[in-house]
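Hi all, long-time lurker, first post. I run a small reading group and we've been trying to get comfortable going from sequence to structure in the token notation. Rather than ask abstract questions, I figured I'd post a concrete chain and ask someone more experienced to write out its structure so we can walk through it together at our next meeting. Sequence below, copied exactly:
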Amino acid sequence: METLSINDLAAVAKAADVLARGGVILYPTDTLYGLGADALSDEAVAKVRAIKGRDEKKPIHAIVADLGMAAKYAEVSEAARKLAQKFLPGPLTLILKKKSGIEASIAKGMDTFSIRIPDNQFCLDLAKAFGKPFTTTSANTAGMQPERSVKKILTQLGENAQRIDLVIDAGELPKRQPSTVVDVSSGEVKVLREGAIPASQLLQTS
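-- Answer (accepted) --
Happy to help. Here is the structure in token form:
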């Protein structure tokens, strides 16, 4: 496991290389630290699930650089565009209707494809450098409270932390709410989890 500071000029390129080789990274977002892997690789996503001890039936979201990248894999409805225009980049997860023919990994056996565009420059730069979606799921053992520092995260993950190839350390993150999760796959706005963005604001926009 290699560790780089978020301020290291090589951090983005190194992380993109790890993702391209099917590896897993631990990285900061605008909410929590996340576990990143190629979202379209069955093997890479399986590594993330193994690190977390996560049920295979539970969905995993993906970071994209912009709606243009999202549109390669999902239907971006008018409702989604309105929310994105007002709240993205930011702590909002959009559940979109998956495009036909997209069956790899996080989309396997599902009708939806969930995206994040975080208000975090490292995440945005990495999405552009990698050129494809990568997973964003909190870096914690399933069922346990997410920690906000790399040291505490690695301690909590225990032996499973050895499966992580690269750590991007941004220090201890401030205490923040998770992203608000909104299902717009049907064209309507359904708030599934209220987080950093109040549901009232989202419903007003729609």
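A couple of things your group might point at:
The helical segments are 11-20, 42-52, 67-70, 78-87, 121-130, 150-157, 199-205.
The chain has a mean pLDDT of 91.
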